[in-house]
Structures are given as structure tokens and as C-alpha cells.
Design brief:
By secondary structure, this protein is α/β, with parallel strands linked by helices. It has helices spanning 2-21, 51-67, 91-104, 116-126, 160-175, 188-204, 221-230, 242-253, 269-273, 277-280, 299-316, 322-341, 346-355; strands at 34-41, 71-73, 76-86, 109-112, 132-135, 180-185, 209-213, 234-237, 261-264, 284-287, 358-359, 366-368, 374-376, 380-385, 398-404. The strands form three sheets. The chain has a seven-stranded mixed beta sheet with strand order 7-6-8-9-10-14-15, sandwiched between helices. Strands 2-3-1-4-5 form a five-stranded mixed beta sheet, with helices on both faces. The longest helix is centred in the N-terminal third of the chain and has 20 residues, at 2-21.
């Protein structure tokens, strides 16, 4: 009798030891009946030109997983559903609706955002709430600081700093201007671009003039007239949302475009299609991706882009915006994190992503850095606007003339406290 109990105790002890020895991520949480994703973008307000195309990209990623049978969760296929919220491009609204997604809708992960200021506000909420958060817009550089980034926030689109750095580096290396004016808005998206551009200018020993417009400016005429009087060789524009469309239009209407080279730092299909062809023709820009990479030297990337664009267009009837593509990638990564972790626990999701940082995209292979932003094979593409005579249709906006590669596109980890 005593011997029998000893054997049972030994078996129990060994089993307990094995459970303790197994890594946390090795044991799957019980698979839910469905995985629920919170999707929240600026569908109204200043972000409204871009928010809807982001939403379409995110929904496509979810629909594809469901068409393949569902998300793999510890060997079981689970359907993915989503709940959509509009942050109205207002931080207070975004915080309230973010909390609704987590506390009332009980979502397993949140994907979203269109404006950097809102992402920064929600990153602070993530530190208080039990959720993994995957913003898919370009965010403020400060958010990637080691002391600032929430442990379960992963921002696939990087920082506006990189858009400024990449644009400035291209201008200096390829256009060799004698005088540059940087014109941006007095909010985080523009200021971060200036920080990146300034670092690039310092690296290459070049100086530039800085000019900014206050938040809420709709008529940029006085600023553009002043820039014209400065007689620069290149003018960098760093505006966003409705501001971007307005400043591009007015650059053409004031005649500034006819007197100098315009470089719009961070272009989207939405912005390009929002201005007359004459306003976009000959304007150089940086884009995180473009749906038609015809002529680009990497044929594999051209084909991957074409395949994604065709798939997206069949569903929505228009070609994907760069922000559609990045929302698609970010949603895929959010769901990959849940699948790898076999859990919605934000700590387990974060560990799973960092333990398996490499993923494939239509921008080439990407890898998450320790600061929770990824480096892509092609970080961004250099494009130039087409005139009316060159266009095949209303979405045939630009042609790709190059790409930005290399890790200097991202700020150094030292700067961010790592």
C-alpha cells in the first residue's frame, strides 16, 4: 500500500516538474470560439481621406484568413471576426472607444489609427489595459523610446522621422540642391519629419531653412508666397490628411511649383488623386509602397505587388493605397502574434513576436527590432508624379524611380534608449 502511494506521488511530482519546466508559450490557452479584432481608424475628421482605405486593408487580411479556414490556434482553426470603431481623429474619442473595444467588446487585439497623436495616446492606455496593440499608421518617434513604448505595442509603419530622413537623404544625394526649404505643420507628424530631415542634412553637411504652419491652417498662400521669395532649389512638404491635399493644390495654384522642385515627403494614393494632375506632375515623393512597381529592378517584388493589388482591387474596386497595404500587413502580424502565442495574453503575444521577428510582405522580408518597429527589405519607394497625358486611369498617379534600403532609414537604437 505504501509502495503504491509512493509511485503515484513520484508520477505526480514528475508531472508537476515538467509543467514548471515548460516555457509559458508552449502551452496553448483554450482556443476561443472566435478571435475578435478591434479595428479603429479616423473614418471622419481630418484623417478621413486615409482612414477608410486603411480599414479595407485590415478587413482583407481577416477575410483571407477566414477563407483559408480560420486562424491556427494550437492546431485548431478559429474564425476571426472584427468590430469597427471610428476615432473621429479626436484623442478623447479614441481613448473612449479603445476602452469600449477592450472592456465591452472583449476584443483579443486592436489594430488601427491614422493620426500619430492618437496612437501616442492609445499607447499609454495599453500600459493600463490587458491588450496587444498594433498601430498601422506612421507614429511619433518618441513613442519608440524604451521608456515610452508599451510592452505589447507593435507599430508596423514606423515613425515620421524616417520619412523625413529618407526624403532628405534622397534629395541631397540625387538632386544636389544649393538651397532647401522644409515646410511642415506644427504637429507631431511634421515635426518628426523635420527631426529626421535635419539629422540627414547634418550627416551630409547640408543646411536647410525650416518653416511651419500652425495647426488648423487651410490657406497656405502666405507661406508659399514667402517660400517663393526665398528662391529655393527644392521645397520639402511634410503635411498630412486634408492639409496634404490643400498644400499640394496651392503649391500649383500659387505658381511655386513652376519655380522650384517640389518634394512631398510622404505620398499616398489618396493625396495624389485629391489634386489635379498638373499639381502632381513632376513632384517627387517618398511612399511606403505603391501598387504599380512596373520597371522596378526587383522583379519578385514587382510581381508580389501586382498580385496583392489585383486581389485588393477585385474586392474593393480600386487599387490599394500604401496605407491599405500597411494596414493589411499590420493586421496579419497581429493575428500571427496570437497564433504563435496560442494566446491573447499581451505578454505572450509580445514575446512570440520578438522570438519570431521575421515575416514576409509585398515590401520584401521584414524583421521586428527590439524597439517594436520593423525594418523592411524596401523601407520606402521614390516616386515622381505623372501628368495627365501619361496616365492610363485616375489611379495611375506616379512612377517608381527608386527605393530606400538600409537600416539608417530607422533611428538608431542608442537614440531610443536601447
Amino acid at each position: 500500500m505504501k509502495s503504491g502511494w509512493s509511485k503515484k506521488w513520484m508520477v505526480l511530482t514528475v508531472a508537476m516538474a515538467l509543467c514548471v519546466a515548460l516555457p509559458l508559450g508552449a502551452v496553448a490557452d483554450k482556443a476561443p470560439k472566435e478571435v475578435k479584432v478591434g479595428l479603429m481608424f479616423g473614418l471622419t475628421g481630418a484623417a478621413s481621406p486615409v482612414g477608410p482605405v486603411q480599414l479595407d486593408g485590415a478587413k482583407l487580411a481577416i477575410d483571407e484568413i477566414n477563407a483559408a479556414g480560420g486562424l491556427d490556434w494550437g492546431g485548431k482553426k478559429v474564425r476571426v471576426d472584427y468590430v469597427v470603431k471610428d476615432d473621429e481623429t479626436k484623442p478623447d474619442v479614441a481613448i473612449r472607444r479603445f476602452r469600449e473595444l477592450v472592456n465591452e467588446e472583449k476584443v483579443h487585439v486592436v489594430v488601427g489609427q491614422t493620426f500619430a497623436s492618437i496612437t501616442a495616446a492609445l499607447n499609454k492606455q495599453v500600459k493600463k489595459l490587458d491588450i496587444a496593440y498594433f498601430p498601422v499608421n506612421v507614429v511619433a518617434l518618441k513613442m519608440f523610446d524604451k521608456k515610452e513604448i508599451a510592452p505589447s505595442t507593435f507599430a508596423v509603419h514606423g515613425a515620421a522621422y524616417s520619412a523625413g530622413f529618407g526624403s532628405a537623404a534622397y534629395i541631397v544625394k540625387n538632386m544636389k540642391p544649393k538651397k532647401i526649404v522644409f515646410f511642415g505643420p506644427a504637429y507631431a507628424f511634421g515635426k518628426d519629419q523635420w527631426n529626421g530631415a535635419r539629422d540627414a542634412f547634418e550627416k551630409f553637411g547640408v543646411k536647410a531653412e525650416y518653416l511651419e504652419s500652425p495647426v488648423g491652417t487651410n490657406d497656405f498662400t502666405s507661406y508659399l508666397t514667402r517660400i517663393m521669395e526665398m528662391e529655393p532649389d527644392v521645397v520639402m512638404l511634410a503635411h498630412w490628411g486634408n492639409d496634404a491635399i490643400n498644400v499640394l493644390k496651392q503649391t500649383y495654384e500659387t505658381g511655386l511649383k513652376g519655380k522650384t522642385q517640389i518634394f512631398f515627403n510622404w505620398m499616398t494614393n489618396v493625396f495624389g488623386a485629391g489634386v489635379p494632375p498638373e499639381a502632381l506632375e513632376g513632384v517627387y515623393s517618398l511612399m511606403s509602397w505603391y501598387y504599380d512597381l512596373s520597371g522596378f529592378e526587383d522583379k519578385e517584388i514587382v510581381e508580389q505587388g501586382r498580385a496583392f493589388a489585383e486581389k485588393f482591387s477585385r474586392v474593393y474596386g480600386y487599387p490599394p493605397d500604401p496605407y491599405s497595404a500597411m494596414a493589411y500587413i499590420g493586421t496579419q502580424e497581429a493575428l500571427r502574434g496570437l497564433s504563435l502565442a496560442k494566446s491573447a495574453d499581451p505578454g505572450k503575444v509580445a514575446k512570440a513576436i520578438l522570438d519570431n521577428p521575421t515575416f514576409e510582405t509585398m515590401k520584401g522580408t521584414a524583421k521586428w527590432r527590439i524597439d517594436h518597429q520593423p525594418i523592411f527589405k524596401y523601407s520606402a519607394f521614390i516616386v515622381v508624379g505623372k501628368g495627365a497625358d501619361e496616365r492610363k486611369n485616375r489611379w495611375d498617379l506616379v512612377k517608381v524611380v527608386g527605393a530606400y534600403t538600409g537600416e539608417d532609414y530607422l533611428p538608431s537604437l542608442d537614440v531610443l534608449g536601447y
